Amino acid sequence: MHTVAVLALDSVVPFDLATPMEVFQRTRLPDGRAGYRVLVCAATPTVTAGAFSMAVPWGLDVLVDADTVVVPGVSDPAAATPATVLDSLRAAAANGARIASICGGAFTLAATGLLDGQRATTHWLATDRLAAEHPRIQVDPNVLYVDNGQFLTSAGAAAGLDLCLHLVRRDHGAAVAAATARLSVMPLERAGGQAQFITYEPPAADGATLEPLLTWMRDNARRELTLADIARHAGLSTRTLNRHFRDQTGTSPLRWLHRVRVHQAQHLLETTVHPVDRVATQVGFGSTTAFRDCFKRITGTSPQAYRRSFR
């Protein structure tokens, strides 16, 4: 039987810990047999998990013989991972184990060096930090999970369910995975990635801030604004405007404007029953096709799918 070892570090996030336990323990093959044997292991006999502590029945020695190792996140991703844990994960990988991280567990997996040169993701709030601390990893902030074959990572919280169901499908096929998803009251596949959940904060105020211009752009996003229009309002050349925007927002003026329009469209899709073409016009897009393309590029899903998920 396929053995899944779930690693419980001290201060483990309870939701991240419970997700693989529930998904894999609920998996049943067509003949009714369990699809997995699930073991919870730790470096110490007891660990804290948010509001409670728990006894853990297995030690790190089970990792090396596991078929799949799952690494949940901990409350503080910056906390140092014990060297014995990192060595055990490396040994499991060397023995051919598939290793998957959930949410902030990507930081633990990254600390082993096993993700170097590969794509990975984590909770969207922590993707910039993961990229800064581990520059050899290609961090993708937009997806629900990344499958590199032996090493997999998921985005935050509920994305761990998506990743675990994906593993069930890899191991036992779509029918078994679909049945497991129904028991978890989850779709087997969700539309879009985690980009649709990201909130974008305005740049911090400073002596050279663009905040007055950004406010004007937000207030006038429904108008047909060109780069020249924005530069004229700011009293800058287009070249200088582009440079200031790159420095303070990390993107170009028109891309920032598109993001504002999509954010306004998200609000309308959540709170009204207006047709998509009307929403496109209300937020400043000249055509419904341009709106759909831009919305999909920024959020990773279509306006209709977004409405179904969030209205």
Q: Would you summarize the structure shown here?
A:
With 311 residues, this protein is of the alpha/beta class. The protein has helices at 14-26, 83-94, 105-111, 127-133, 159-172, 174-183, 211-219, 227-234, 238-249, 253-271, 276-282, 288-299, 303-310; strands spanning 2-7, 36-41, 46-49, 52-55, 68-71, 98-101, 119-120, 138-139, 145-147, 151-154. It is 44% helix and 13% strand.
Largest sheet: 6 strands, mixed
Q: How much strand?
A: 5-15%
Secondary-structure class: alpha/beta
Shape: elongated
Number of strand segments = 10
CA-CA gap between termini: 42 Å
> Helix coverage percent of residues?
40-55%
> Could you report the average pLDDT, rounded to the nearest whole number?
89
Helical element count? Answer: 13
| Neighbour order of strands in the largest sheet | 2-1-5-6-10-9
pLDDT under 50 segments (min length 5)? 202-207
Using only CA atoms, what is the Rg?
23 Å
> Helix-strand pattern, N to C?
EHEEEEHEHEHEEEHHHHHHHHH
